[in-house]
Structure formats: C-alpha cells, structure tokens
C-alpha cells in the first residue's frame, strides 16, 4: 500500500506566531503525522528546530525524521516578529494558492493554513477577500462554503461570517441558511463519519424571538427553512434559543449547531476549548483546516505561543482526509 500524502501547511504571516507553533508542532508530532510547510526556510530558523528543505511533498515523511520539512517558497523580506513586512504580503497569498494547487493535484492529502493578517495583506498586496475562507472558495471555484469551528465537545457553524452585526439580518436569507445546513449535513457524513447527522439551529433574536415578540426572523426565515429540510428527511431542530444551546446537556442532543452570526458561534467554542479549537472549511473539493486563532503579533518571537490548536488542526486534517478517501 502506498503511503498517504502528507498534509500541506501554508506558513501564513511569518511575522506572527506561525514559525514558532510550526516548529513546536513538529517537536510534538515528528514523523507520526507527516506534514510540510510551504514557506521560506529562513523564516523558520531560530526556533530550536532544523528546517529541512524538500524538493517535493513526497519527500516530507523522510525529512520529518530529521527536522521540519519545508517546501521552499521565496519571500523578499525577513520575518521580524510582530512587524509584518508589506513586501511579504504577495508571497503570503501565493503560498496559500500553491497549497491549494498541491492538494487539488493529490500531492498533499489536505491543507492546513497558518494564520494570516488580513490588514497586512490588504495594505501590502491589495488582498480583497474578507478572510481565508472566502479566498479558498475563490481558488476552488466554489460559490458557497461553510466555516465550521470544531473541538472534541462541539461543532458549530456560523451562517454569516465576517460581516458587521448590523448586516446580519439582511444577509440571513432562506437560501443562505438552506445551503449552510445542507453543506454541513453532507460534510458530517463524508468527513466526520456520522451517517445520520443531527443538526440544531439557533435563533437570531433573544429567546429565538419569543413567538415574534422579540423579532420575526425565526417565524419568517429560520423556521420555514427547518421545516422544509425536515420534510426532506434531515434531522434538523430549532430554532433554539442560543443562550441554552451550548451547555453540556444540550450539546449531547446534536452533532453540529448552526449559529446565525460570527460571535454567536465563536464565543461558545472558545469558552469550551480556547486552545484546541479548529477552523474547518466545508464545501471545498479538498480538506482545509486552520488553528482557531490569529497571528498574535504581541507574543510573536517570545517563545510563549501555544501550538495546541495547530496540532489539533493537523490531526483533524489527516483524519478528515482519511475518512473522505474511505467513502
């Protein structure tokens, strides 16, 4: 049996904590979970781990026995911790695209993306996407993708993502919510080995609108979508009051929760597992995971960065790729 391809990791913003947590991840995983970084080897030096340049992804497993495998990608400027260089912005973007290409061609089993700094990319290279998720959808040619946050105790999906709270009500259309639930349902089957997924849907308003007294979104948008999907045979419940959805007893009743906006989803998962949450993009033709944190410029280069979320993202990428390959 041929060895499974390694996980590709885009280096993200090299002036953040990515170089440190990548080295720490290799120290903990070694060759048990072969992965390789796409980036400048010089940006990974000085963290107590030897960067090992490789010529192709297939060399990663052997290289991982000696150090951190790196598929070299030139960056024009050094990486100074906490100080993103505008001239590196285009290379940060190019590395993501290169990772997608490698996964799409089957040279990598999945893509894990280290954090980017969106303002640095906008200022340095005119990056026009709200975040990784939207850029990956563009690269894959996919119209609709879903952002899931996952840890051992919770999987949660925000129906709307990187928009102002004042824009959520208008953005929350029946089509968006239907697509979000369908994509989540399909991924729970194909990527998480859950043959009959149970999905709980939150309301938008306090107390899920309380029968229309606190808003009619549940009556006019959310409820009808749930009923239509139930009629098709999906196990979808709600709309539930979001303030009672995320305690342990409630979580035992579903496999994934659908939230209506960003913070409604991210506050519970970061409260439950701040260090170990993983960002997963559903609906792509490849597996993509990411640590559920940012560049952390304030602690970059200090040795205090925690690699737990990155390690969880690598492990989830490997497991999802194996499951998708098996189905």
TrEMBL record:
Cellular compartment(s): Cytoplasm
Cofactor notes: Binds 1 divalent metal cation per subunit. Can use ions such as Zn(2+), Mg(2+) or Co(2+).
Binding site for substrate: 132-133, 270, 279, 288
Catalytic function, reaction form: 4-(phosphooxy)-L-threonine + NAD(+) = 3-amino-2-oxopropyl phosphate + CO2 + NADH
Single Gene Ontology BP annotation: pyridoxal phosphate biosynthetic process
Annotated keywords: Cobalt, Cytoplasm, Magnesium, Metal-binding, NAD, NADP, Oxidoreductase, Pyridoxine biosynthesis, Zinc
Enzyme class, broadest EC rank: oxidoreductase
GO function terms (MF aspect): 4-hydroxythreonine-4-phosphate dehydrogenase activity; cobalt ion binding; magnesium ion binding; NAD binding; zinc ion binding
Pathway: Cofactor biosynthesis; pyridoxine 5'-phosphate biosynthesis; pyridoxine 5'-phosphate from D-erythrose 4-phosphate: step 4/5
Family annotation (InterPro entries): PdxA (IPR037510), PdxA_fam (IPR005255)
Transmembrane segments: none
Cellular component aspect of the GO annotation: cytoplasm
PANTHER family: 4-HYDROXYTHREONINE-4-PHOSPHATE DEHYDROGENASE, D-THREONATE 4-PHOSPHATE DEHYDROGENASE
The protein's role, per its UniProt record: Catalyzes the NAD(P)-dependent oxidation of 4-(phosphooxy)-L-threonine (HTP) into 2-amino-3-oxo-4-(phosphooxy)butyric acid which spontaneously decarboxylates to form 3-amino-2-oxopropyl phosphate (AHAP).
Binding partners and assembly: Homodimer.
Family: Belongs to the PdxA family.
Additional observations: The active site is located at the dimer interface.
Protein name per Swiss-Prot or TrEMBL: 4-hydroxythreonine-4-phosphate dehydrogenase
Lineage summary: Bacteria, Pseudomonadati, Pseudomonadota, Alphaproteobacteria, Rhodobacterales
